[in-house]
Amino acid sequence: MSKVHVMDHPLIQHKLTLIRDKNTGVKEFREMVNELALLMTYEVTRDLPLEETEIETPICTTRSKVLSGKKLGVVPILRAGLGMVDGVTKLIPAAKVGHIGLYRDPETLEPVEYYCKLPADIAERELIVTDPMLATGGSASAAIRFLKQRGAKHIRLMCLIAAPEGIARVQRDHGDVDIYVAAVDERLNDHGYIVPGLGDAGDRLFGTK
In the chain, what are the helix, strand and coil shares in percent, each to the nearest 5? Predict the structure, then answer.
């Protein structure tokens, strides 16, 4: 079964509290989601393989470590996942960015795909799927399924807040995909929102209702 990594770094927890606050405005919310994604990317990429190379410092020649050339990609689940992309690409500027557009049917709460555009070499890349909220898990599970159908083999899921129900759904459907979150909250309410959560991440990122 996939692992759930909960990141308890003080900076992550501090910023998470600020974006939970209903009084945090769009500008600040967007900036802090970006900052949280950047901080979380450190942990998500902790086990990337390294290799040694020879370089010349101002003092002497030495051997030092660099990434071993593994290709990376980030795939936001539209629309809220877009708010995390800049944080990832600031640390991994060479990462290619794909997009998957899903919306949740208000009656069934199940995901419906409306857009998918991915790098041609997706099968060769270590992919980070981003979505701020892992609620029912339906959208994340569907996005991962779409990626696998198109050849993706190495996928990690990065969310800010997860509900136990969403984690269980992803683990049931995709036991090979590790989940990285800043917090696991109590539960879902009757409308499929995470409690206590932070409301609708997409609306708060883009100033919509």
Answer: 35, 30, 35
Quick: pLDDT tens for 122-147.
Answer: 999 999 999 999 999 989 999 999 99
Per the annotation, the verdict on 79 as an active-site residue is: no
Q: What are phi and psi of 33, to 5 degrees?
A: -65, -40
| Residues whose CB falls within 8 Å of the CB of residue 46, separated by 6 or more in sequence, listed in order | none
H/E element, 170: helix 164-173
Q: Which of 104, 145, 150, 173 is catalytic?
A: 104
Q: What is the pLDDT of residues 60-87, one digit of tens each?
A: 999 999 988 779 999 999 989 999 999 9
Known active-site residue 200: yes
- 186 secondary structure, DSSP code: S
pTM of the model: 0.92
Report the distance separating Cα 37 and Cα 95, nearest Å: 14
**Position of tokens 């770094």?**
9
Active site residue 108: yes
Instruction: Using the structure block, give the residue that is written with the tokens 């795909």.
Output: 113
